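Re: the multi-chain job from yesterday

Posting the exact lines I submitted so nobody has to dig through the queue logs.
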Amino acid sequence: MIELKGVSKSFTLHNQNGAVIPVMEGASLKVMPGECVALTGVSGVGKSTLMRVIYGNYLAASGQVLVGGLDVAQAEPREILNLRRETLGYVSQFLRVVPRVPTLEVVAEPLLAIGFDRQVALDKAANLLVRLNIPERLWTLSPTTFSGGEQQRVNIARGFVHDYPALLLDEPTASLDAKNRETVLALITQAKARGAAIVGIFHDVDARKRVCDRQVDLSNFAPGMAA
Amino acid sequence: MTPLLSVQDITKTYGARIGCTGVSFDLYPSEVMGIVGESGSGKTTLLNCLAGYLEPDTGQVIFDTRTDGPMDTVTMSEPERRMLGRTDWAFVHQHASDGLRMSVSAGGNIGERLMALGNRHYGSIRGDAMNWLGRVEIDTDRIDDRPTAFSGGMQQRLQIARNLVTGPRLVFMDEPTGGLDVSVQARLLDLLRGLVREMGLSAIIVTHDLAVVRLLADRLMVMKDGHVVEAGLTDQVLDDPQHAYTQLLVSSVLQV
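And the result, structure tokens for all chains:
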């Protein structure tokens, strides 16, 4: 479902004397439906960078990034947007929303964007918010005013509301209490059971052991560090 | 899929000075494209060439018309282009007073495009105007007031209602949120986003505000000195800019 072949990435900082910072070389990875793969390595090794490359948010310098058959590294903007709507979900560490939009709408939006009936979409969103313990009195407010943990859970609800065939999870259990952490792990297990291919970053070792089938150490792809 | 608008090699010079040069792109149905760049980079010149307000020196602007399929709007006759401007195209100006008739009531402003298309039933035109005032969040009891009695934000929303009432397929916007205070901006952006999604509109938005394009645009084109220096998916261009100028632009935004 997700396959990377020889992906490299570097940043060129034109305004700082054209400094070139290579961050990744020859990264390859294959994730089958129903499988969860953890990216590991020390901070700064490029875990989030690789996630963003898969999502099309960062431009790969070379190599192929295949998600559901589409090469994200070469695709047109509208193809990537379509992929993100239908196929590829991403739970980032930060929630970015339009001001004034109520939480319930924020969570239902991915479904509305692919043409779900409004009521069905809102019901599904409400279900997830209940599971993630966001009190109903907050649903009509914009999540911009929420606490860090609440925002994180809204973000997770948004990422799981549609049954994406492929999912990217950037520290989904960070800043969550034990009960919510269990809920998130259950959501991940469910997603795997329905056949989602998942790539995740988990600093929480116990969580990683419970939901991930394999680990890929990204320091193998770090330039100058590879054996 | 046929692009709604296919722009090929548009160049416009003012004497020896370059307005914009060698601009090409395809815009597909329900796509929203942002054009950013500092003032003087050729954004507005390009927009005016695309919308038929300026004649480009070279190049083609091919629009997929409802009746006759793809046609070059640069070479089509003036009446045909005007008809397009009243039906499938809409233009939201930076200054609402450029896009509104300031001495005609709000209802009259909204009704004008409908009447230009042959609508003659006063009741139904007024009904449509009421409906649109509601959609852009203006109290319907202001229908008989002139735009001169409206605030800047209301004028801008009235301009949007006037433009969208005939269900256009392509909207050109020149700094739609320029000169409005932030709370009014947020409301307007929210409104535009909703309308774009509900009506399946395609839009080209010229702005120098990167936050506006991040919210509204699927794609982004960055211009400098009349040239397109970078183009791509909006979040990719903003988060991983490749060109020196885009990097400068992105890193110059003040954090709130």
